[in-house]
Amino acid sequence: MKRLFLFLAAGCILPVTAFCQLEKGNLMGPFSVGITYYHQDQKDLGFKVNDFSVSLTDALGIFVIDRLAVGPGLTFSLEDFHSYGSSAGGEQYNFSYSILFDPFVRYYFAKNGKLAWFGQVNGAIGYGQNIWKNINETETQHFKNNVLKYGGSAGMGMTFFFNQSIGLETMLAYNFLKSDWVDKEPESDFKYSNIMNTISLNVGLAFYLATK
User: Fold this and answer.
1) Is the pLDDT at 1 greater than 50, yes or no?
2) CA distance 40 to 81
3) pTM of the entire structure?
4) Whole-number Å distance between alpha carbons of 39 and 37
């Protein structure tokens, strides 16, 4: 622990003179935050939709060769969905959360001064829960669904290295995520699937640690 602290402290005052943090055997730990907002106003159909979500991703990677890092990751997501209007049959609220295991592969293909560009692909599988509330003229309904989620993403990003140990990074990614769940009814179970195709811009910090 003392050695790690001294390494990070030294990295904060030394300028970047080489990209030795991308060498084989070194470790990296990217952390990022993603935010998505969606609004739909269908005046001709008489309903509106507001959808807001935030995701936190943490990972640990090792450079198996120079510039190529692989490793596990975890993503925790929250989503708040609200639809209302005459054609929607009242109001519908859905709060959902999920925890995904998303291993990644990242390759730094170019560098210039303190900047480095990379490509990254992720897989994803995990568990979540939908918490629903439906309000109409006659009643208010509450129910929950357990959700299986799986998919992946691919993106391009850029890292700005403050020093040998810390970098600010941003990545534009295409994300594919499928959700499967079952509605438990008294007489039968109804199975549902939902597919989300989104474009996200993630911003975060990455920490680098030399192991030799």
Assistant:
1) no
2) 12
3) 0.77
4) 7
